[in-house]
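Q: What does the assembled structure look like for these inputs?
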Amino acid sequence: MKISGQVEVYKIMSSGKKKLVHLEENLLVDGAGEHIVNMLTMPSSIGSLAANAGSATLNPSSWCVRAVSFGKGASSYYADKEQDGVIEAPSRGGHYYSSHISSIYGSSIEAGHPQIMITQSNVPVYGSALAKHHYLPKYPDPMDTSLELSTATMYEVATENWGGTGTTAATSGGLQMGQNLNMMCGASGHLRPSDVFMGCYAPNYGMEYFFVNAAWKNPDGAFTGASSSEIGARIQGDNGGSAKYVGSGHFNSVSSMDNRGFLIGRTRQEMLQSNDHQNVMVVSGACASSLKRVDPAHTLASSIMIKSPAVAHTFTVSAPDAAFTNFYGGIHHLGLWTFDIEKNSGKGVLPPYNIVLDGFGNSNKEYKLFAKKMFVRNLVENSDYESGDPAVDYAGHLNHNDLYIRWKVSFDSNSKLDTGAP
Amino acid sequence: MISGKLKVTQVFSDGTQRKVFEDSNIITDGMGINIATLFATNGSQKSSNFAPAYFQLGTCAIEFSAPGVVGGAGGIATDAQYHLSSAFYKMSSAYSIDSFGESSDLRFFYGNRSFQASSDHTEWGEMFFTSALNLSGSTTSSTSTKEWFAEIPVVNNTKYYIDSIEYRIALDENSLNGLPIKEVGLFAKNPVGLKHDHPMLVAYKKFEQPFNKTKDFSLVFDWSIGFLKHFIAWDNFSNVVGEESESVEKWFLS
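A:
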């Protein structure tokens, strides 16, 4: 019997139609087999399970895939190579608060917070397509337990090399998750400069962002060395003008992603409405031989699995989140995660696992990697449309599509004939 | 890849052991339905109901027959049968409790068996090999009559490696003596989650040469099911120029 996974990525077009842009196999990591074996040998398999864990430990909702995460190549978290003694901004660009820019453009958001994002641009005219850095993710390995091994951020580079840059005092701490973090998920009053460095999803209350000409190679931590006029001259906007944009992330609007970048999953028993896949990851039964999504309502009926029983994990990356993750280096990785019952039990977190995020985006749950998918091309890559007619041209970052992603894990029987002879 | 291996050992009263059989098995479609149902949270709300907990032994065996004839003797299987060779949910001819003898140490359960049912637009029936073709619908169902299933004690389930399980079936000296054993099936406990257990076949093995059980020995079936048949590392120590490297199987070396 073959366990396999397939990832389908659709772009939701303005007409509402879906366009399939990726259809590829995934990699089930060793953790998947271990997880299933643990499940089938419960409770003896979990040594650290507390005696009072209760029957909820046996509930399938404690064992099914409960989160999805996004990531990119490790180098994209870090920075470009050092050049002429200057470490260039990473592919995600520099993300810094600047009182100078705020004074130029004004700020509708609480003063004193690093609400300004500056990203590189290599299109001076339109100033909206990002400088593309082709850092490939690491090769997929069945022994992987995370999407990437290291996700040291540019922020750490900044503190090492540009020490004393004012607002950049914190570190990324223990949040080396190997994936895109969601550091701006808390309330605006909690936002720190380090959160802006690490990203990667826009806060629900909106974040102002600007574009800076890619020729400007040395944005320091707070632009303290640049004059207001110089900064203003380098900020790019649509059609040659300068502009301030505001982005608001959907994941953070619905509080569906914790600060470590895990988009929470919801089983059919936990579904609230039929469009849950727009907010969270929905786990449902599916027929692997069919490309048609199994509507949540159908899963309430008896099993519809036919020849290739499968489980579908369906979720949406909305356009605002796609735009912001692109600012931070894009999406080259997807990961499916189950609860790590052993680790959770070890820290005293017992089923049933109610996923509630606190004001800082903490879910207090540990996850185990089940499957991963690497994309050579950035899933949220886009480009400006430049025809020469300003009336029809548009900036790429304003033209992202929602991505509808269905990840099916199927259990196909394809055994050879059994002759009975040893 | 989910795969399995069955080892059968004779254990004599003086403690000596003799391995009499070791081979890979068939992981049937029921295993896929079993695990997919759990991960989709569509069935039982207790994960232990998805674990194998019962077995049956039989006097005949599921045969792969000549084209167009399912269950017949010999012949060349069709392509469809190759691809559907694990699409069955029952034993060929399972022994009932009476065959095991009054002194058997085994515990038995009498209940309905689960299977995947299919429809040909007119009526529903249990899927069995090519009957799975041209189906218009499918659902999990169960037999209307009851069967005998022998229990596998929970203590006989072992996490054998980080990603494999071993189920030990011990057929004591007093069980099934004088009768041939030509097939064995492993059943998940109750994946559909009904009030009483409804076992579903998840793994199967037939024996070309039947075992004739006697009171002189007990038979121990060590059934390993794992999830990593093919190790991904490649053997780079080939010392013959031009010889292709071969994949190294982590276990279940054939």
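The first helix of chain B runs from residue 29 to 39.
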